[in-house]
Amino acid sequence: MGSERGADSTDAAGDSDGAPSDDPPAVELDGVTKRYGDAAAVDDVSLAVREGEFFTLVGPSGCGKTTTLRLIAGFEEPTTGTVRFSGESVAGVPPEDRDVGVVFQNYALFPHMTVGENVGYGLNFADPPEGTSRDERVAELLELVDLPDAADRDPESLSGGQRQRVAMARALAPGPDLLLLDEPMSALDAQLRERLRVQVRRIQSELGITTVYVTHDQEEALAISDRVAVMRDGRPEQIAPPRTVYREPSSRFVAEFVGDNNVFAGRVVDVEGGEAGDEDASRTVGVDVGGEVLRVEADEGVVSGDRLAFCVRPEYLRIGEGENRVRATVASAEFLGETTRVTLDWGGRDLVVRTRDPLSGEVVVGFDPEDAHVIDGDEA
Amino acid sequence: MSDASRGAASGGADDSPATRPLRERVARRLRGRLLTALAVVTSAVLVAAFYYPVGTVLIEAVVVDGVATLAVFAELLRDPFYFGELARLFAGESPLAVARALLGPDRRLGIVGFTAYQAALSTVASVALGLPAAYLLARFEFPGRRTLRSLTIVPFVLPSIMVAVGFVATFGANGTLNRVLGALGLPPVDLMFTLQAIVIAHAFYNAPLVARVTTAAWESVDASAVETARSLGAGPVRAFFDVVAPQVYPAVLTGAALTFVFTFGTFPIVLALGGFELATVEVFVYRLVRDLNYAEAAALAIVELLISLGVLLAYLRYEARNAVSSRGVRPLPRKSLLPSTPTARELLPRAGLAVYAAVAALLFLAPLASMVLASVTGGDGALTLDHYRFLLDRQRTGAAFQVRPWPAIRNSLAFASASTLLALPMGVVVAVLTTRRYRGRKLVDAAAMAPLAVSGIIVGLGLLRGLVFGVEIAGWRFAATGAAAIVVAHAVAGYPFVVRTVAPGLEGLDRSLIESARALGASRARVIRDVELPLVWPGVVAGAAFAFAISIGEFTATVVLATGADAYTMPVAIERFIGRRLGPATAMGVVLLVVTGLSFVVIERLGGETRGL
Fold it and tell me: What is the mean pLDDT of residues B190-205?
């Protein structure tokens, strides 16, 4: 893989991180709904994937992420709404004419073909790049996925991780415009998964190929993506870069699905500082959570008497420190190596903290108002 | 831009839908229609060779002299000759009186009743004989187990008329059984033209079928389910009845239902072993056809069809409600045939199986062995090649109206090859169509499988009167030769087996394989060629073997269509010999056995070499 690809990827990265350009998005779903009988697997989804972007659909099983991917690939047609590639509707275009590469969870390698024949299969329908023979292209792709000598092997003789990489090479060989990955690593063990996702990301940036990735593993989604769509019940709840999704979840569902979190809900009892009009000043509100008033930063829309939900990540809950402090008792502890994940019982509510030192009995745990994130639009 | 590498990779073509050349769009349209075109051709063949001819015959039952009427049916239903005591019910007598008569000592069953009665007995015998085999095959490990398991398919494809000859050679007045009895100083028994002979012959055919489906279900029982039951406190017997039996039972019922339907429509076995004295419905339909009583034959065939379909439908409804779909992740471990400890629990089942094995070996090997033996035994009991010499003489000197062996062999092979070539694409197309998901799929499935349920006599008769005698369409007269009609009839009889061997493979194919190929640029038709067919190829080969075997052994439709002097096949030749001389019939049977066996080897070889093409 030449250096020119590396240079390309820098460009691509620059593009996708920059301000929205005038170019139409590589993939766009516009009010897409997919119904099976009465049930909507995908419910009025609108989203746009930028050119060269690594975009991940994440959510619990049954949230519609795989159906969304299949709608993009053309294996399903939307019940209503439009899928566009670079601004053009692809309605009625069969999968073979969409120039997409697909990698499935079970890899779907053709068992009656060698690894090389698998990788070369798509070249029956698309020419390899100019100046490259079919065999060279196959060798090039196997090189790319670090399996240079596998061409004559039987797919059955490969390990799971190797199969996954062959599937990746096969999908990329015809030079698709779009790479679609449907839980490509969920059948692999944890360590291998971490290694492979680094490799997948490396290949993606080398080629600068627009990629849509489906996973149920939020950690994987955060680690690998430029942007993440957290899906629930057939719709995205939040579409944002991983950091934003983690730090500023837009809903209680996102807050709890992505990483460990402590979610509190209560009624606002007093509002302090940053009176109306004073936008910059930090403004905190006291929230009555189970009889204890906890102070959190909130924007000016919040007034006394509102119901409010907010979340505090375990790493921001500190023992014996913080402006808001509560007394809780240790309920259970999981030793994770670097830290210990401790579940505390605070008046019947669970609080999760991470500590280095062992905890027991009754502890005081606290957090600062600025470390709490108010969840927008919570009806709790 | 990053497009540089990708653009080059995709050949630099601008493939956005708007600029896609018209030519390519048209090509895509056509590719999408290829399957449709094949489906249309298949439907056309089915209509011409099955629905139209059968329809014309069946219509005769309800249209007499151009007037629609149910009179033929009404007469049939009220005729005790057909329906026995039940006919009185149809004639308006009180159900109580009829019930009393049915329970009485000299009840009459009529032909339909007798057919159902012998089918029920045959089903019981087949299940009784098939279950121990399933137990042996599913639960024990021994040398040759796999071979034995694949052999269970053999009786099903053996030409029925040959099996009938084998049974005559075994149970006939001068058969092996009586020779053995005579040698032991025991009085001879005459089983010919008895219900027992028919039931045993039916068990020969269908017990392996029962064993086969039951073994498959038994093998798919997950060992961990049994282990869970055991760990929860159930003893081995209890665990069997709570966990294994419920999963095996539906398969037994499948075997039983199919056995009933097959034996209800039985023809060559009864014709050869029972004659017209013990006629079943199908035999009597044949007789009515021979007597040119088409209306009554058609009406009787409809009654037969309705009963068969009724049983199948009842069974399918049961199956839909009780389907157990567990794929055994880890099958139950097989036990050794040698007992590990000399306890009763170890010894008893094995002793039982040993007795069973002796009975089964006798039942399954005796007819074929007796046929071979009889073909080299003269009237005086000495070894002789006279019967084969007779065939050769007949070939040399036989008159034009006489059945000669070589044309029979030649016709059988030619018809079987031609009908296999026709049945294969038909079967594959229908298999593809019936494994897709769309509205009306069940209807397509049913329409395509109907030939299995319709009397072969009626198919033969329909083809004879519809195609061979000619049909006039828009002033043009179309007529097929008897040979062509036989090929078509065999293909129609054989292709459902191609569907049945190919469809499960297609159904079981991982959908993501197909989707991967499509995402890589292959059209739907191309995926069938590149991915689906190679992966289900063993099923296609098996289907070809089936189609070939069905054709070579087909007797029912052939005997109707081969009325001319020159279109007879080996089974027809055997039947014409059997009435007069058993010796030449057995010799001809041996020839048929050898030709069928060789054909199977050839098909296996061909299939093996072209695998993964």
Answer: 84
Question: Which residues does residue A256 pair with via DSSP β-bridges, in sequence order?
Answer: none
A137: nearest CA partner in chain B: B9
Checking if the pLDDT of B366 tops 90, the result is: no
Contact list, B517 vs chain A (CB under 8 Å): 110, 121
Print the domain residue range for A21.
Answer: 3-99+177-257
* Cβ-based neighbours of A42, under 8 Å, separated by 6 or more: A32, A33, A34, A64, A67, A68, A71, A78, A234, A235
Nearest-Cα residue of chain A relative to residue B516 = A102
Residue of A nearest to B514 (CA): A108
Taking the C-alpha atoms of residue B267 and residue B161, their distance in angstroms, rounded to an integer, is: 9
pLDDT tens by residue, B42-70: 888 888 888 888 888 888 777 777 777 77
The confidence band for A12, taking pLDDT boundaries of 50, 70 and 90, is very low
**Distance separating alpha carbons of residues A53 and A18, to the nearest angstrom:** 11
Q: What is the mean pLDDT of residues B545-566?
A: 81
Q: Are residues A317 and A200 in the same domain?
A: no
Please, is B369 exposed, middle or buried when counting C-beta atoms within 10 Å of its C-beta (0-12, 13-18, 19+)? Answer: middle
Q: Among the listed ranges A260-264, B91-95, B148-152, B238-242, which one has the minimum average pLDDT value?
A: B91-95
Given a contact cutoff of 8 angstroms between Cβ atoms, the answer to whether B258 and B126 are in contact is no
Q: Which pLDDT does position B613 carry in this prediction?
A: 28
In this structure, are A266 and A252 located in the same domain? Answer: no
| A98 in reach of chain B (CB within 8 A) | yes
Q: Are residues A251 and A268 in the same domain?
A: no
Pairing of strands B335-336, B140-141: parallel
In sign, the C-alpha dihedral spanning B438, B439, B442, B443 is negative
**Calpha distance B55→B493 (Å, rounded):** 16
pLDDT tens-digit series, residues A27-50? 999 999 999 888 899 999 999 999
Q: Is A78 inside any structural domain?
A: yes
User: Do A88 and B18 count as a contact with CB atoms less than 8 A apart?
Assistant: yes
Residues of A in contact with B436 (CB under 8 A): none
* Helix or strand (DSSP H, E) at A349: strand A349-355
ipTM of the complex: 0.77
3-state class of A274 per DSSP? coil
Q: Is the pLDDT of residue A226 over 80?
A: yes
Q: Note whether B11 contacts A111, CB cutoff 8 Å.
A: no
CB A329 within 8 A of CB A272: no
Lowest mean pLDDT among A332-336, B352-356, B397-401: B397-401
The CA-based angle B151-B152-B155, given to 5 degrees, is 95
Question: Please, what is the angle between helix B582-610 and helix B537-553, to 10°?
Answer: 160
The residue extents of the domains of chain B are 118-293+306-379
Question: What is the residue-averaged pLDDT of chain B?
Answer: 80
Instruction: Assess if CATH 1.10.3720.10 describes domain B118-293+306-379.
Output: yes
Please indicate whether, in this complex, the C-beta atoms of B521 and A93 are within 8 angstroms of each other: no
Query: Of residues B475 and B79, which shows the higher confidence score?
Result: B79
Tell me if B480 sits within 8 A of B48, measured CB to CB.
no
pLDDT, tens only, B446-483: 777 778 777 788 888 888 877 777 666 666 666 667 78
- Give the residue ranges of DSSP H helices in chain A: 3-17, 65-73, 115-120, 134-144, 160-172, 190-207, 218-224, 242-247, 252-257
